[in-house]
Design a protein that fits this description.
This protein is of the alpha+beta class. The protein is built from two helices and four strands; from the N terminus they run βαβαββ. β1, α1 and β2 form a beta-alpha-beta unit. The longest helix is centred in the middle third of the chain and has 12 residues. The N terminus is likely disordered.
Length: 97
C-alpha cells in the first residue's frame, strides 16, 4: 500500500467539490489479482463517506476486476483514466446508500 496524498476538509469548508471530503491514492501497479482488490478494499474501508480513492493499476485483469468488484460492493466508480502506457487511474468514491 502506498498512500500518496490526502486533501483534508477544513472547518470553513467541510466538503470539497461534489461532497468529496478527502482524496487518497493507492498504487497497486505491481500487484496481481486477487491482491489488487484486497488492497483496494482495505483502503476503502478506512475512508469516510464522500472520500475518494484514486487507484493506480495495470491494464488487463486488475483494470477489469477492480472497478467491477468495487461497483458490486456498493462503491461508486467515478472515472477510469489512462495515465501512462498500460497504467490506469480508477477513481472510487465511498458512499453508503
Amino acid at each position: 500500500m502506498l498512500l500518496l496524498s490526502c486533501n483534508s476538509p477544513t472547518a470553513d469548508k467541510p466538503f470539497l467539490s461534489d461532497g468529496v471530503m478527502a482524496t487518497f491514492q493507492l498504487d497497486i501497479t505491481r500487484e496481481h489479482c486477487p491482491m489488487t482488490f484486497v488492497k483496494t478494499k482495505i483502503e476503502l474501508s478506512k475512508l469516510k463517506d464522500g472520500d475518494l480513492l484514486e487507484v493506480l493499476l495495470s491494464a488487463g485483469e486488475p483494470l477489469e476486476n477492480v472497478p467491477r468488484t468495487a461497483r458490486e460492493q456498493g462503491y461508486h466508480v467515478v472515472d477510469i483514466q489512462s495515465v501512462a502506457d498500460s497504467i490506469y487511474k480508477v477513481i472510487i468514491k465511498k458512499q453508503t446508500n
